[in-house]
Write a structure and sequence with these properties.
Blueprint lengths: L1 E3 L4 E3 L3 E3 L2 E3 L7 H11 L4 H8 L3 H8 L7 H11 L3 H4 L6 H22 L6 H18 L3 H14 L1
Antiparallel strand pairs: 1-2, 3-4
GO molecular function: DNA binding
Pfam family, one: HTH_19
Protein name: Helix-turn-helix transcriptional regulator
Length: 158
Amino acid sequence: MGYDLAHDSFQGTNEHHWGTIVNMTGMQGIGSRLASARANKQVSQVKAAAMLEISDKTYKNYELEKREIPLSTAIVFCEAFEVDLEWLVGLQANAGEKSVALVSETIEALFSEAQERKLSLSPNRAAKIGTYIFRNSTQKGTSPQAEAGPIFDMLNDT
């Protein structure tokens, strides 16, 4: 049991490959996550298969969990459908929970930075700055804490 190089997939146990732990065998719900991501993009199974350059039947079997999806195909799927590999394979609860955590971190970073600088922010100004911090964090993949300081620095320069 382990990584099957010939089929570019994992068999049986948790394995480590390119820094990501993947357990494809016995994974409950990977098929429904494939279907959900596909539906969110309003793409048919036939079109999804074409995007992944695989047969319709093969793709359908992935969604039905009758066949394991190879890691290389899972990566291409995640890029095409804009989902995290960790979410797809069930290591992350869902993207919604990740967003909620990021909002919470943004609020904390915003008020910590304002308090540290002894600034009083109106709710409207806090919302605008928080939105900017959140957008920068998501676009750059940085933490809200890393974004808050430079944004407040920029505001002090104006």
